[in-house]
């Protein structure tokens, strides 16, 4: 059976199975287990209504538990074992990690990524949102800046390979350098330390559109009166933007910032395709992939370190969500 | 007057800076698109920004020893460099302009057209600007005439060759179908599962509801890396292994938190009156969900579908781990990152065409369904 056919069968079976489950389980509940008739009708309806939410939730909870909650525990457990998966070595994998030079580079680089990318993407997004607001061709401009969101990280990396290429006849950067009088082409991917920033540019290029779209909606939501009052008081456009508008959308800015931060900790594609983690550009997600399939103990240990970094922001996120529910 | 002048200057500044931003953002993609249609030799001869201009490329041809004749005391071969069969592709009309010629591959344009070069085996060579050459020596050239290198103005050439090569010999067509095969089920199945759960979390009263919503928000940011090793070994244990079934299940699991979160937020915002009055009329939750809430939630369903589609289509990590690494099962991202970049690292035409094939569908989806995508983003992050 070709994969394509297999895919069609899966859609039919998956969708059919889901519908059959939800419909069948409801029928079972209402007609067989707690029928809404006979002497116990009142009690039956109450009971059916107590069970029903869990009926609706069960498939989602099962999949979420298996694919996201269990791995948190499973990964930690696995990280306590050695390469073969049988010998318990406690925190040995973590000790080996911290002794590894590449791991320390990856941590430092990752910190740089987390500091620079969300800040830059949010900043450019905010500027783009404000500038395109009320512009006659603003929507077209927004579409173009938003477009990289649709492109895969691999595709984006390839696009930027054409900018960074170590050849003045292919790479835009080197062409500009040659035009300004430089003698030889440089491989920007091999410039120590700064190559990290050239890689970050790719992710900033992708994420600015995301920040722009959300912040632009937030800017539209600002009450007109506050801006009008500021104009009457003689504030100039910069004052209106920084003193009146930005403080009012601070909450959204924080949400955008944290969302991009989570993303930065997940993206391994860019480093993997551009440098393969060489030339001092390793970050934690790509470092983990270098151990995947070779030493699961190490790989899970790196994954757990990433989890520990995410944890504080995750807790804060949950607290925010709970506040909103109330 | 003064204020008005300032205002229009500010408006100009805004127009200009947005234009600069847009140009900056679109240039890399334009470069890729243009490069993918250029002749592979021209790509490395001049930058894509010069693609409409003629390119100076170097060629090699061999003087035809069969045309050798004696002239006075000399053996002479005459001909035209553009007539050689080797370069028939580039010079179909057998005409061109020579900008330089040479006798070694290392210095293919060392001599100006019309000047005389000493051949290494003795004798001289002259190539004129129109391509006519004359090689003369006191001894016969033997069976093989001397090799002539020359540099010539070549008109710009745009072709679909890169695409046909990458789709044919490099099996990008198979990878395209694989990507499609992975993406569609992985987009459809989570929607259905999530919709029911979202309805329960939005409109049904039961103990622990708040806790579950908080848990979904927490799972939203669990790093994917954590899930790889335990799930892969689980898949092997239950006999799924690295397969399409495995990756569908994995993507379903990883997409669910966002699906539940987006749909719950949207459903919770539906007007309470409609649902309450349906309840009063005796509709069951199942009926309310399928007849009222599901149709009303179409925009949210569409936004999530677009998200999940883009995410799965563009994913590299999950495909690398949960699909077998054989050629038949490679999706486009894996194909590009692991195959083409490694073996065809210097073949820019192939890389550009491959990249454009892989981003064409997401771009199409993006530009036609942008409205839903934006709405989904807003529902997900602004409250």
Automatic annotation (TrEMBL), chain A:
InterPro entries (alphabetical): MetI-like, MetI-like_sf, UgpAE/MalFG_permease
ABC transmembrane type-1 domain location: 107-317
Gene3D superfamilies found in the cross-reference section: MetI-like
Keyword Transport: yes
Record keywords, A-Z: Cell membrane, Membrane, Transmembrane, Transmembrane helix, Transport
UniProt membrane topology term: Multi-pass membrane protein
Full protein name: Alpha-glucoside transport system permease protein
Organism of origin: Rhodovulum iodosum
UniProtKB/TrEMBL annotation, chain B:
Location within or outside the cell: Cell membrane
Name of the molecule in the record: Alpha-glucoside transport system permease protein
SUPFAM superfamilies documented for this protein: MetI-like
UniProt keyword Transmembrane helix, yes or no: yes
Topology with respect to the bilayer: Multi-pass membrane protein
Transmembrane segments: 12-34, 175-199, 211-232, 244-263, 292-313, 348-369
InterPro entries per record: MetI-like (IPR000515), MetI-like_sf (IPR035906)
All copies of domain ABC transmembrane type-1, residue ranges: 176-369
Gene3D superfamilies reported for this sequence: MetI-like
Coiled coil regions in record: none
Keywords in alphabetical order: Cell membrane, Membrane, Transmembrane, Transmembrane helix, Transport
PROSITE patterns tied to this protein: ABC_TM1 (PS50928)
Family as reported in the entry's similarity comment: Belongs to the binding-protein-dependent transport system permease family.
Keyword Cell membrane carried by entry: yes
